[in-house]
Write a structure and sequence with these properties.
This protein is an alpha+beta fold. Helices cover 46% and strands 35% of the residues. Strands 1-2-3-4 form a four-stranded antiparallel β-sheet. The N terminus is likely disordered.
Length: 136
């Protein structure tokens, strides 16, 4: 768990300089997310997330959600970013990555939203679409 938290922290400090740096930091955040998810560290993911995430879902519900996703999808195998958006407005600075992903039990499309705040990128949202979630 300590290694995973360190990875989440390292990924969060490199963002904020430019779209390229912000996107790179978000990509590192995705890797840290999947490492933590595979290790069953759902609470650590939530605890390190932004206030945006915490206002959208409770800690207990988030843990149940990720555990359920992992049970249905199986282990993460590979993924690639298909598009990204780096958007800074008066409402905040966010980097969004859309990704094709492959899990043990089939493919999915993931969307990660990271908030860039004071030179850190922190998970603000995670969304996934996969037929595996419906068909089992």
């Amino acid at each position: 768990m300590k290694r995973i938290l360190i990875l989440l922290s390292l990924a969060s400090f490199v963002g904020g300089c430019s779209p390229a740096a912000d996107t790179k930091a978000a990509e590192e955040g995705v890797t840290s997310f999947h490492d933590a998810m595979e290790a069953g560290e759902y609470a650590a993911i939530y605890d390190q997330s932004s206030s945006d995430m915490k206002s959208a879902i409770s800690r207990d519900d988030f843990i149940k959600l990720l555990a359920g996703l992992h049970d249905k999808l199986g282990a993460f195998k590979a993924g690639k970013t298909t598009s990204w958006n780096d958007n800074a407005t008066t409402g905040g600075h966010y980097v969004t990555l859309s990704r094709d992903a492959q899990f043990d039990n089939g493919p999915g499309t993931e969307q990660f939203v990271f908030k860039v705040d004071k030179g850190r990128t922190v998970l603000a949202g995670y969304h996934i679409n996969s037929n595996v979630l419906i068909t089992g």
